[in-house]
Fold each of these.
Amino acid sequence: MLPNPLLIISGAIPFLTLPIGAFASNSSILNFDDIPTSQGLGSIPSTYHHLAFSQYNVLTPRDPNLKDRISSHDLNCAVSSPNALIGSRVSSSNKHYSYDRESAMREGGAYFSVANASDMLLHAGLQPHFSLVSFNLKPLDAPSPGSSIVVNGYSHARNESDPFRWHVDFPAGFHRPFLVKMQEYSGEAWDRLYGVEILADFGEQRLDWEFCIDDLEVRFFALDDSTSELVGDQPHLQVVLGDD
């Protein structure tokens, strides 16, 4: 079995050709550092490395324009400098489906999903789903007691009302980013995903709390043998390493 190439994504990456029958997948770490910001803030392109992001903005925490606007304890949001993503919940007028760990409906959280399944299939040679491997996470500022972050993974392999789910509770005070390893922490691999939702809240009324993520590691998979092409004397699959 071939090893998975591990990349720090910062622009266009060429494709890799693998023989059919090989473990045709790759892990890509999205660090968001190639997205321009203005005065410390920016918007994510509508499609970013095959994913679409909703309720996220790009943050450059050490930008001088943000001095006194964010806590000095949040300068570590960008684990790989200069950028990270800042997320918050969808307003009640534009909620996305979501279930908390007690299965009661909540306002939808920040969300990323497959941006264009047809483009992945026809142009990138990838299956229209992904695996979530890991990401760095921290709540902004100093959360109040009772703050928690819930991660829901919506998969083709599971019912929509029963997504993959993992959560973490935070004590009051400032926090450093920590690496969330999905399979290790949740006890199962988060595979065949078409979307991932992250919610942060606090208090009995479950009020919204902002959070940041960075170095998002996802894994894409090549199409099966039926979409292969000949390279030299043997059939190969094309595996795009992170390029849109």
Amino acid sequence: MHTTHLDSRSWATTLLQFLIRPFRPLLVKPGKPLPSGSPRITPLSKIRSRCHIEEKQINGIWTYTLSAKKSPPQDQNTKQDENSPKTDRIYYFAGGAFQMPPSPQHWTFCAEICNRCTNTNVTVVSYPLAPNNPAPDSFPKLVELFHSLMHMAKESGETATFMGDSAGGNLALSVPLYALSQVQQRYRLRGGDEEREGGIPLTSIFLISPTLSLLNTNPQIPVTAKHDPVLTIPYINSVAETWAGGWALGDPRLSPLVADISVLKNYGVRVYGVTGSYDILAPDAEVFRERCEKEGVEGQWLSWERQMHCFPLAWGYGFKESRRGLEWVVEMLRREAEGGNEVS
């Protein structure tokens, strides 16, 4: 596990953080609750000039696959020719307090990734949202979806990455952790070996400013809150209660920080992450990174001092650190596509 530490902050980013801080409640306020079930959404129109977009419903969950227009669109159900380059598929879970669909920033971020990473498709997952679909309703559906996606990836010869930011980062980690634990236990009971049956196509998990614990008890959170220009402690506590839906906040399905992560090493799943120190979710992410290192989970992390929540997603506004953050993400995804070369 390697961590890149950066500490620069441009005057433009400093000014932005100062200007948006008074508007924190408005910046992250959820909109009108969406109906029960997976919302059928409309991708940002301007990305259609750069990406093919395939809408598909899988196990009742709407998905939107972006592929670069420089490449022909690919159906995940179609098995790849053995002589053609292997396609990497990223399943992206957008943040938004478990209550909001992908924002324009999410769409442009995903479109940029699929255009910069060769032979890579990005599938945006429109998961059921709180408050009408809290975790007790949504999580089992996402676990079922995970198993279906892994089966489809195996059949088509693709490798898979689960990726997400903020609340979406929580799901990009907690769902595979729970699902892989199920698989591991099932094979142990049967005395079988999943590797002999084709293995698990999931090769990596990528987290950007993730929500890793709904307990919010890390003593560094109040310290970091003094500098966070986006999130507040009352806000993240409210988000936690809304998503939990009656489950205990310390349940590993809600708080993957306390889950058994040895399954990641057992299946060779690498973990990448991005954090900014002016983000009240960063202290828990740092603890998780340390746990990964202790457990022998491979991967790489970018830790940037004085950067705010989800700063790489602001790359389209021209901020220097956001653009560099995006470049780091793309570079890691490219390395992952090469089989995790130089990742340790």
